[in-house]
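To illustrate the input format used throughout this study, we show a single complete record. The first block contains the structure-token representation of the backbone; no residue identities are included at this stage. The design step must infer an amino acid for every position from geometry alone.
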């Protein structure tokens, strides 16, 4: 399989480098194009991928076309490429946030029956610890889904979701790294308030959160069960948990998730 990336920004770069590092696709089978020629040539040289002179050249060379550009660019770009993609019967993969399968199909035009897969990766993909969701349209085959699952397993974990669940996924995976960064920074500031240097406090808090996430994934215990394991009767952790709940910590986090979902749905309907 030959895969082409239209756009070579941070996320495309992470995906490409992850696939090469994990030996999922050979570098010579990856084709790239972007409008900034100097950056394109530098990226192709760094990754030993094939730089194309146009989107049309890329589409003609590959089996899978990955749209790794912003949603507003897709709206302008995809209609002009739909005929070439359709004639090649390429698998179309989009990583544009908030761009539904139906919108992608509409941009392709009537009577276009290409397989389309929508993908939602998150920021942590850039360090190989991503959480990605994918879903395909009615023309997508099982083997195509498996191929794209493999692509994104190169940069972390990936799940196949129904598209109706993409807004909740956006909140708990796409936006939640920002919530986690805020939590880490807040923990560190609490230590700074009590005399610890900020850089040291941030390192300690970040490692504690990293280890806690791994405990949830690897221990087989629920988060609440693990809370009980940390909490000794009358101890320091219980005092902290009670203080957080006095300020409605759980319901506040849920409100943040709700607000993210609402905004995501508003953007999809624009």
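Output of the design step:
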């Amino acid at each position: 399989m030959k895969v082409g990336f239209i756009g070579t920004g941070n996320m495309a770069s992470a995906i490409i480098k992850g696939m090469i590092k994990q030996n999922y696709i050979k570098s010579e089978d990856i084709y790239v194009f972007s409008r900034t020629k100097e950056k394109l040539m530098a990226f192709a040289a760094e990754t030993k991928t094939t730089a194309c002179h146009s989107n049309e050249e890329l589409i003609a060379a590959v089996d899978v076309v990955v749209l790794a550009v912003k949603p507003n660019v897709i709206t302008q770009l995809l209609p002009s490429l739909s005929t070439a993609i359709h004639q090649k019967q390429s698998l179309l993969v989009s990583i544009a946030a908030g761009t539904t399968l139906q919108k992608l199909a509409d941009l392709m035009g009537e009577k276009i029956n290409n397989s389309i897969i929508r993908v939602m990766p998150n920021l942590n993909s850039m360090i190989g610890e991503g959480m990605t969701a994918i879903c395909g349209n009615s023309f997508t085959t099982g083997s195509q889904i498996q191929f794209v699952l493999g692509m994104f397993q190169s940069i972390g974990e990936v799940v196949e979701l129904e598209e109706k669940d993409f807004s909740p996924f956006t909140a708990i995976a796409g936006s939640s790294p920002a919530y986690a960064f805020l939590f880490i920074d807040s923990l560190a500031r609490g230590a700074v308030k009590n005399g610890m240097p900020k850089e040291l406090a941030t390192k300690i808090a970040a490692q504690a959160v990293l280890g806690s996430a791994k405990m949830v994934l690897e221990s087989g215990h629920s988060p609440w069960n693990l809370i009980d394991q940390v909490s000794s009767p009358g101890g320091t952790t219980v005092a902290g948990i009670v203080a957080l709940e006095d300020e409605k910590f759980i319901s506040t986090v849920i409100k943040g998730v709700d607000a993210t979902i609402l905004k995501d749905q508003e953007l999809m309907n624009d």
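Structural context for interpreting the output: The longest strand covers residues 130-136. The two ends are 36 Å apart (CA to CA).
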